[in-house]
Amino acid sequence: MTDICLDMNEYRVNLRVAAIVRRGEDVLLCRPPGHDWWFLPGGRIKVNEDSLTAVRRELTEEIGSGFEVRKPTAIVENFFDLEERRFHEICTVYEVTWHGGLIAATVDDVQEEFDWFSLAELRDVVLKPDLIKQRILNPQTELELIVNRENK
Fold this sequence. Notes:
Shape: globular
Order of helices and strands: EEEEHEEEHHE
CATH class: Alpha Beta
Strand content: 35-45%
Helix content: 10-25%
CATH architecture: Alpha-Beta Complex
Structural class: alpha+beta
Radius of gyration: 15 Å
CATH superfamily: Nucleoside Triphosphate Pyrophosphohydrolase
């Protein structure tokens, strides 16, 4: 299946899923090698794939099968620039509980680095988009719409 990723005008449009993976008071983040910023694990939704199936597939590929998807917690409309490209991304974020042991990718092409951060450490982490920190630190019962505009 093909990822939902379209180049339109000067933008790359992504349909994505992400997960706030919790292990007690810690949260799992990932980053591209060599970068100083972090983001939530996840990836692009494929054509004809619903977001719940996508988050389960992406997490299994990236970290293994020791997790439980609990509920969607936020929809993030994210506008940003990365590597000289403008992005318009729509991302469904899920609350996830980790029950497994070590993080272990199940596919060979996972290139991100993963690490656990305490909620206290999270305050000093460069997280993209930064607005998602509040959702991590203060979980809510209702689904929230978050609009993040880093580019104008």
